[in-house]
Lrp/AsnC family leucine-responsive transcriptional regulator (Albidovulum denitrificans), 154 residues
Amino acid sequence: MDAIDARLLSALQRDGRQTVTDLAAAVGLSPTPCARRLARLEAEGVIEGYSARVDQARIGFPVSVFIQVELESQSKDAIDTFERAVRGFDRVMECHLMTGTRDILMRVVAADLTDFDRFLEDKLMRVPGIRSMRSSFALRTMVRRQVLPVRVSA
């Protein structure tokens, strides 16, 4: 990745709806080479896709819950089984395999406490292989970045 790729990615992260012409002007290219670079970054998987950032509270999910999960076993099969199950839960916004005393850290959204309780009882508590769970409710988000720092590769 060179400096132009880095500028392209930074500009796209700030505004993914820019036209190729506007993006090219922002990074100092003409539109055709800019489009070629975009296509290459997409083909290489650097650009994973395009989406809109949506305010979760304004669409009815003001509650964020962080759930620490300890599995009964840390075998590949146990982790794969858990992962397959939670991939099907649309309330799970993030799910990370962790080091330390808890195996999994998840961020789940909910409409309210009753909605979260329903999610636990109807979904998460039915996943086989969970030893224990601990939930923490976010009071407010202090920092949420959507733009990754982009560095030029050596």
The helical segments are 3-14, 20-27, 31-43, 76-87, 113-122. The chain has a mean pLDDT of 95. The chain has two domains: 3-43, 57-137.
